[in-house]
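Input/output pair, single chain:
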Amino acid sequence: MRDRESINLAIVEFLGPLVLVFVGVGAIIQTQGQQLLPIALAHGLAIGLMISAVGHITGGAFNPAVTLGLFVTGRLDAARAVLYGIAQLLGGVVGAALLTLVYPDIGPIGRNTNGVNLGVPTLGPDISVGSGLLTEIILTFLLVFVIFGVAIDHRTGRVISGLIIGLTITMDILAGGAVSGAVMNPARAFGPALVQQDFADHWVWWLGPAIGAIIAALLYHHVLLDDGAPSTTRAAERDRVLPDASSGDDAEGAMPTAVVRSRSRRSQRRRR
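Output:
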C-alpha cells in the first residue's frame, strides 16, 4: 500500500469506532443506561451513517471482528487487516477519552453515576460468563452475516447497506443488551475499558465477536456466496467490494459494485 493510501484508510477506520463509542456511550450516559431503545438506535445510527458516508473508501469495517471475518475469507490481506484493527482500537480509545471531556464524572448525566462506568460492557445480573459469551457469538454472527449479505454479495443491492447494517446493530442490542451489552465489537469494548482501567471479563467481548464473525464469514463465503460462478468471476466481484492492496485503482475498487456499474453506464452514454 502507498503511504497516502494507508493514511486515508487508517483515518476512515479510526473515525468509525470513534463515532460509535462517542455516540453510543454518550446515549448510555444521557439515559444512565436505563433506556435500551435510544441506546440501541444511537449505536445503530452511528455505524449505519458512517458506512453510508465513507464505506466506499475502506468497505466500512469499523470493527476488529468484522475485519477478522474479511481476512479469513481472503477479502483483506494481512497488512490491511492489521492497519484496520489498530486504527479501529485507537478510534475506540479516543472516542471514550473525548467523553471524559464532555460529561462530568458524577451528576445527573455523569459518566460514572449509577454504575454507568463510561459504558464499559458488563454482564447482566445473574448472567454467567458462558451465557454472555454465547450471546456475543450469536449477535456478532447475525451482524457479520448481514454484512456479507448486503455489502459483499453481488446478487443484492448495496445502496442501503448502511441502513440495513445499522438496523441489525439496533436489533442485536435490543435482543441482547441486557445480557452482555450486545457489544459485537472489540473496539467498542476496548476504548472505554482502557480509559476506565476496568477489564473485568474483558476477554468475553473479544472472543465472542471473533468466533461469531469467523463462523458467519466462512458460512456465507463458502456456502452461500459460492453460486457456481468461475473463481475468476468471484475474485473480480470481491475486488470491486473491498480494495485490493496490490492494485493501484483503490478508489474505484473500494466502491460497491452498484456504484462501479453506474459509472460504467455513464461512460458508455458519453461515448455514444
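The chain is about 70% helix and 0% strand. The first helix runs from residue 3 to 31.
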